[in-house]
Amino acid sequence: MIGTIVNVITVAIGSTVGLLLRDKLPQPLIKAVFSALGLFTILIGVKTAFDTSDLFSVVISLVIGAVLGQALRLEERITSAIEKLKQKGGKKEDGKDRFAEGLVTAFILFCIGAMTFIGCLNEGLRGDRSTILTKSIMDLFSSVALASAFGRGVLFSIIPLLIYQGALTLGASWLEPYLTAEIQSVILGCGGILLIGLGLNILDITKLKIINLAPSLLLAPLFAVYVPKLMNYLNCLFDSLI
To answer: What are phi and psi of 164, to 5 degrees?
Structure first.
């Protein structure tokens, strides 16, 4: 879990630097850096999404996940919970500190993607930290830009970051028998789509409720197993009718 701890430290350092510099950096510069970060997020999302070979399972996972997330009002509930925690801390909104949005955006950017998934599994199963350490360096620079734009929420994202990546690393040996290439492909496909949406939000092109799509990541393993079987059955049935 050393790689995850290093990742948490780099995000904490980057976020602190971003918070210290946010009042000193000109807004045009912050917007330029943020635009670059948004475009880079889209690039990562596209690259990750293209790794999937089962587009049908990805689409079904996203659609049903979106319906489930909307029905549960995940985005609204999580944002509300984060804002309540912020208020209990005695900090008031300063007009620039988009706490909940910053925390959620940072967490999704740092934790959804092929580098997170593969990096944690490699460290947990083989002790190979090269991928997760490379990700840590990338997150260092990303957190500076995010914190300068969103505020303290980016710094607080280290808490769910530690829990998520730590659990994935420690549970790698248990998950390995179940994470077939097909399942990983669909999970990464869904994660890539979420990253593309996040990048569009960062660029202020859209206001997509990315959290409401998050259940697709949990549904992906199920559909990765059963959708191809269903398609094969339907193809055999169709062939027999012809």
So the answer is: -65, -55
Mean pLDDT of the 221-225 span: 90
- Show the tokens assigned to 42: 């889209």
Amino acid letter, residue 178: Y
Does residue 65 contact residue 82 with C-beta atoms inside 8 Å?
A: no
Q: How many CB atoms lie within 10 A of CB 87?
A: 12
Alpha helices in 112-157 (DSSP H): 114-126, 130-150, 153-156
Q: Which 8-state DSSP code applies to residue 25?
A: S
Phi, psi (deg, nearest 5) at residue 207: -130, 55
Within 8 A by CB and 6+ apart from 79, the residues are 100, 101, 104, 211
Sign of CA dihedral 130, 132, 136, 138: positive
| Crossing angle between the packed helical segments 99-111 and 2-21, to the nearest 10 degrees | 140
pTM: 0.78
Q: What is the pLDDT of residue 86?
A: 65
H/E run at residue 80:
helix 74-88
pLDDT tens profile 87-104: 655 454 454 567 888 888
By C-alpha distance, which of 215, 218, 199 is closest to 39? 199
Segment 140-168 mean pLDDT: 90
Taking the CA atoms of residue 195, residue 150, residue 23 and residue 135 in that order, the dihedral angle to the nearest 10 degrees is: -40
Degrees (nearest 5) of the Cα angle 110, 115, 155?
A: 15
Q: Where are the alpha helices (DSSP H) in the chain?
A: 2-21, 27-49, 55-72, 74-88, 99-111, 114-126, 130-150, 153-156, 158-170, 172-175, 181-202, 215-241
Residue with tokens 């994470």: 179
